């Protein structure tokens, strides 16, 4: 049996296979509210046979949105739209998951196809917050450094978002601590120059993430898994390293995190990233081997045999698919055929299953 199509159980939740749709911003919301685009987008991937779909980076606070077009979960009014997606995913055997996010200094930008530039308050943007008043790019207005009350507000925003996510029916929660967003900004010495208990040593830089984990865990029933996405390296001298990631993974494991989703980069605009097929998989492998924590592999995984090899060689527990699932929402159904595994197709599509 191909590993890719073996079930994966964590706590009380079972994925029917190891294919996870990676969180991908659609930049198509208004005031954080989801709409028909989001339902059709996630619904297509559920129909396509994924075991779990992680909904895009969903902002825990309005000022934590990357763009004005991000999804949000800072208010009860976001719940009906989220519930609609959850119910559709569940009805097609896809576990509904959500990524909870705060963009910190990378907030308040235009969506990619609107230019991607920083938006000032006069252009529909807002002031951003971060561990230190250091801009991401030289031409950008720097963020305001959070004071301790502000840090507490961030933790409480993640806590309230988790409570809402559980109320909406999500069964896997992922904390976004990667790609140069707020929690990553705290972790990395390149973006965190704080002189207080949240900066300086490794323990201090990891403090906010661990407080967020603790706050979220208190809002989650014990049968639901909690995942964290990190950037396993900043790819830059003096930045966050793979060794830091292993150390962090041990702490996360002790504190109720069930899987580390291993991405990289995003905190240094000019970092030289050696992009190529499966280039981030070694980080998932290292964390899994050194800590025993389950890992997710992501990044330029585009073929069934490649995904199968990663799992069969014990480098990760699940495969996260990003762009390949945008090219082919039916990747899981196609991969099953390629790997010779019998999987159910949606009843409505059964007549297309055989090519004869
Ligand atoms: C992304 N990515 C991303 N990552 C994340 O953690 N949260 C997010 O909301 C998004 N948004 C997003 C939107 C779009 C359109 C793309 C293409 C990517 C990164 C994504 O989840 C994944 O990690 C990378 O795309 C690498 O995997 P692939 O695409 O090579 O399979």
From TrEMBL:
Molecular function per GO: FMN binding; NADP binding; NADPH dehydrogenase activity
Oxidoreductase among keywords: yes
UniProt KW Membrane keyword: no
InterPro entries in UniProt: Aldolase_TIM, OxRdtase_FMN_N, YqjM-like
Sorted UniProt keywords: Flavoprotein, FMN, NADP, Oxidoreductase
Pfam families in UniProt: Oxidored_FMN
Cofactors named for this entry: FMN
Domain NADH:flavin oxidoreductase/NADH oxidase N-terminal: 3-338
Domain of life: Bacteria
Protein name: NADH:flavin oxidoreductase/NADH oxidase
Organism annotation: Hymenobacter metallilatus
Taxonomy of the source species: Bacteria, Pseudomonadati, Bacteroidota, Cytophagia, Cytophagales
